[in-house]
# Entry
Amino acid sequence: MWKDRYRCAATLSVDFDAESLWSGTFKLTTPSPLSRGDYDVRAGLPRIHALLDKHELPATFMVPGQVADDHPDACADIAERGRHEVGYHGYFHESVLELPLDEERELMKRGIARLEEGFGATPRGNRSPPFALGPNTADLLEEFRFAYDSSLFGHDEPYRPRVPVVGGALRDFVELPVSWELDDAPYFLFSFFPYMSGLATPSQVLEIWKAEFDGSYASGGCFLLVVHPFCIGRHPRIAMLDELIQYIKSFQDVWFATWRRNGAACRPSTAPGSRPSWQTPDGAGFPVRVRARGGGGCGTEKPCGWTARLTATGCRPVARATACTWIPRSCTAAPAGWWRP
Ligand SMILES: [Zn+2]
# Structure
């Protein structure tokens, strides 16, 4: 049960890579491959906006710092809608697998600053390109106080990850997992250099995505879809996404949310081993951040300035903090006035 009344959660994220996918990941800097990134801005994003506006849906846009630099107007188009979230997606869409810690920290710092300038909001989610968390990234996400990561494959609904995966520490952020099944690129990204097959028919992909949603709905889980403007933006594919959204909306008790709000609403495990758990095995808990209503009239929210600790018995305030933004709905003992997104 999500948000106390929904059976299933559904979230859409849009990886707005533009030219950085081709220059940063594939090292292709000549006009033709870069123009595939240009398609993001000219055709893909406007069609995605038209679709999301029609359905009044929120989405999370994962944006590299360089893209915020290169495409301020496109970023403004996202920000001005007011219901979308922006997440960090590398600076140059670079691989962080072999990046020294100091270098990755500097890029992350610069990238966060670029997104703050471009979107007027601090990104609280990370997706390391291309779905590849580096050996130092988890430490940096905790250092920069990210609320969630979305680069791992360990479940098909949000969970609290261990990094390193085997024997590593339980991390103080949520994992909103990715999957190649629910990414449009394996189906639609065709390229000669480097070679990728990817010219599936939209009807085939619609069949797979509907079946994935059916499974999430039946299990009370979370449907996490990733799309890229230059892949999904072509006419038959955006029409297919429209059909998928209509299909999901035909279920009355589905909660559409950004990835950040979705991660903040994760539920705890009730049966050991049956669900990913928010609670540490010893019940010691881990810090969460909160905010409260009040101070500006009805419906106004402002940071309350408290850090809380989630334990086996509920959520307890532990210290003043400068950044406090969210609290899992699994906190059943939040003090009066605290707001759970
Ligand atoms: Zn990307």
In short: The chain has two domains: 8-264, 269-341. The first strand starts at residue 8 and ends at 15. Residues 267-341 have pLDDT under 50 and may be disordered.
